[in-house]
Amino acid sequence: MTEYYTWIKAAHVISVIAWMAALLYLPRLMVYHVAAEVGSPQSETFKIMERRLLRAIANPAMIATWVFGLMLAYVLEAWHFGWFHAKVLFVVVLTVIHHMMVRWMKAFQKDRNTKSARYFRIMNEVPALLMIGIVIFVIVKPF
């Protein structure tokens, strides 16, 4: 193992925590944004919060998660393990959800949201469920 393994692993965990925080918070903001009247000061504040959360935290954290995760996979030669394939599948789904959130944010920015608060409440749970699966794959390594 490389002498930098623990540093890469630490950077990966830090970036995952930041990314998950953003993925768990953004749909919650959108739940409240739905209730705000279009053009109201509250709606404009939500637009700023959503945009900043994505640009300053979620996007960089997602990129860092992928970069450090791939570095770890290379160091560990993880491509040979079933648990790794399952983890990558779940991370790909998280990435797709991240990009869905970007589209939702852009719809709110243009005052064109068509989704309900209930939709965002449900979508708020999906990253948490995927995270649980990822942690089980990495820690328990069931296959």
Counted by DSSP, the helix tally is 4
Number of domains as seen in the coordinates = 1
Shape: elongated
Percent helix? over 70%
Secondary-structure map with pairings?
Blueprint: H1 5-35, H2 41-76, H3 82-109, H4 117-139
Helix pairs in contact: 1-2, 1-3, 1-4, 2-3, 3-4
Polypeptide structure, described:
The protein is built from four helices and no strands. The chain is mostly helical and 143 residues long. The chain has one domain (5-139). Helix 1 runs antiparallel to helix 4 and helix 2 packs antiparallel against helix 3. The chain is elongated and about 55 Å long. The mean pLDDT is 97.
What are the key terms here?
143 residues; mainly alpha; 4 helices; 0% strand; elongated
Overview in brief:
This protein has one domain (5-139).
